[in-house]
Amino acid sequence: MTTPTTARPPGGREPATRPTGRAAPRNGAPRGFLTVGSAVALPVRRISVVIALVTVALLLVAATATLTLGRLGVSLADLPAALTGGARGKDAFVLERLRGPRLVVGIGTGAAFGLSGALFQSVTRNPLGSPDVIGLGAGAGAGAAVVALLLPGTVPVWTGALAGAALAMALVYVSTGSGFRNPGRLVVAGIGVAAIATAIIQYVVYAVERDKAAVLTAYVNGSLAARSWDHATTIWLVLLVAAPLTALLARRLSIGEMGDEIAAGLGAEPRTTKTLAVLLSIVLSAGAVSVAGPISFVALTAPQIAKRLTRGSGPHLLLSALVGALLLVLADLCAQQLPLFENLPVGIYTMAIGGVYLGSLLLREWRKGVL
Amino acid sequence: MTTTTHDRPSGARTSRTGTARLAYSLVAGLAVLVLAMLASVMFGSRTTSFGDVLDALSGTADPYVTTVIESRYPRTALGLLAGVCLAVAGTLMQGVTRNPLADPGLLGINAGAAASVVAATAFLGASGTTDTMWWALPGALLAGLLVHAIGSAGASTSLVRLVLAGAVLSAVLMAFIQAVTLSRPKVFDSYRYWVVGALGGRDFDVFTAVLPFAAAGLLLALLLGPGLNTLALGDESATSLGANPALLRGGGLIAATLLSAAATAAVGPIAFVGLAVPHIVRALVGVDFRVQIVFSAVVGPALLLLADVVGRIVLRPQELMVGVVTAFIGAPALLLAVRRMRGNT
């Protein structure tokens, strides 16, 4: 299992039909497996490592900008000392209460959404098979809205969000009649379920008084404002549990992307793998939604960007998580610093950016005649 | 991948029995519409009887009851107008795009109207229905054109592409709307009452303000009916029959936009009426667009008014807005339609 053998088992069979130079490592670039014991074997290419490192560097830059920019920012010169425990007064407040937790929650949530989307898209072999499209966001919003209207104060809003998300996904799964496989049906069923959920949200926003309505609207869009260290602990615990399990699945998933028959022939038990991957994906999304609300489009775009960066096959789990974190931290930086609109929930920025990106992606796919 | 919207060949309709059947169907449809209008003035937080309505119409009813009933006239009139507009717009769009999933809501036209109204209210201080109407039009038209352009890029216009393009555009426009409304509490307040889609709480001024636009759209739709029939045969056949497909499409899109902008400006974005009514009408009367447009104008308002009455009854003494009711009726219908979709379309 751990030996760096063939990186692309069926590729050798008919090399002429493969898009050479894309799926296969270029110029015979060295490719091996990162092994942990005998259970984990992650395929690693040098180009992937470089891209991952660049993403981490960008993430660090974005994180520094988040902490230092603006009226309340800690000045760049003071930052190293402040981070190592020397912060006092205003800086301590900003780091410990305002932007510190917000940043840590943002990174964790973005990574969770990215990983969740990568798992889901790998299983469905469908670029649109993302938790956003299958009604997770809208369902979570509707659940939160119902809880806020009917049981204010008694039940935490995030439990409603989780229940709503689960219900919406189940509804989409049942109503397509073919699971999450067919992109066309998935999209239309997702739109139908989202329409019901949106109607519920709009009714609640109409029925409650204005200030509550504004708070609720911010929540259903997904917001990172006023997060505490409790939120950070929650999302990082979820990641800590889910990430190793995902790594265990990684190899089986990349075999699974070759098709059920090949996967079964290679002993990868496609059914079990898929069920586990979908469960993990839902746990990750649910964790992210419970701390930050249904932030849209991160789970959909992060794996797509990761795929385009490495130009390789496979689920790109780690890179999707990194790109997700980077996207969300950048969007939140916009939310905090752009002078145009003040204090908007970050979900509105991801919706705008993700919508434009998805539009351009679709245009390109259609020109090629895919979908 | 283009899917034609008709399911059986025309021709049977032209026989004498067919015409008689159409006449009966039309009378039955009108009867349902009248009943729906009656129900709309009878039911509410204080229910009145049929006798009360007759008394109120002849001016002999108790003044209190008369006030109650008269207070329901504007919403009934608005329901009538919006129902006609949405249903005919849906029929036109499904005919022009030859796509059974075409609907002003799904294709982003309502979002376009909403975005431009919100922008005008927030930045230019527009207010009142006439202003709103004029601002809803360019947004709706632009969104319609954009979705059509994105959806028909590449080789062929597929059924899902247009819907997907509509969803993408709606997402971007929603982000803009939310950004503007959340940063301006006053705009947010009026927006949340408008976006839910309600017939109540509006008066006759709204009706008279949007009437000219609705009438223009309807007239255009009726003029286009015969042309749309040839378009359903395919572009080549339409050209050989002397029609101009590009002109027909453009005209149809403009009429549909006028109608849906009028409905959206009057009562807010209401989804699914434009999607569902054409399907019901096609099942009833077949594929002739001239007939379809007339029947849509009868079935649409009947459906919308009945949905409004249901919304007033289920949560009494509070009420559920008609936009919420239509979503709850229409979305399951869409989900059922998904199960019947074939292949990867």
Automatic annotation (TrEMBL), chain A:
Region described as Disordered: spans on this chain: 1-29
What is the topology of this protein in the membrane according to its UniProt annotation? Answer: Multi-pass membrane protein
Indicate, by first and last residue, each region the UniProt record lists as having compositional bias (Low complexity).
Answer: 1-14
**Which residue windows are transmembrane per the record?**
47-69, 103-121, 133-151, 157-174, 186-208, 228-250, 276-297, 317-334, 346-363
An example Gene Ontology CC term for this record: plasma membrane
Q: Which InterPro entries match?
A: ABC_BtuC-like, ABC_transptr_permease_BtuC
**Pfam families, from UniProt?**
FecCD (PF01032)
A molecular function (GO) term: transmembrane transporter activity
Keywords in alphabetical order, please: Cell membrane, Membrane, Transmembrane, Transmembrane helix, Transport
Enumerate the Gene Ontology biological process terms.
siderophore-iron import into cell
Q: What is its main location?
A: membrane
UniProt subcellular location: Cell membrane
- Asked if Cell membrane is a keyword of the record, the answer is yes
Report the sequence similarity comment from the record: Belongs to the binding-protein-dependent transport system permease family. FecCD subfamily.
Protein name, UniProt field: Ferrichrome ABC transporter permease
From TrEMBL, chain B:
Q: How does it sit in the membrane?
A: Multi-pass membrane protein
Q: Per its UniProt record, what CDD domains does this chain match? A: TM_ABC_iron-siderophores_like (cd06550)
Q: Name one GO molecular function term.
A: transmembrane transporter activity
Q: Which UniProt keywords apply?
A: Cell membrane, Membrane, Transmembrane, Transmembrane helix, Transport
One cellular-component annotation, GO? plasma membrane
**Predominant cellular place of this UniProt entry's protein:** membrane
Q: Which residues cross the membrane?
A: 22-43, 77-95, 107-126, 133-153, 159-183, 204-224, 253-281, 293-314, 320-338
State if Transmembrane is listed as a keyword: yes
- One BP annotation, GO: siderophore-iron import into cell
Localization in the cell? Cell membrane
Concerning its family, UniProt says: Belongs to the binding-protein-dependent transport system permease family. FecCD subfamily.
- Supply the name of the protein: Iron ABC transporter permease
Q: Which organism is it from?
A: Streptomyces corynorhini
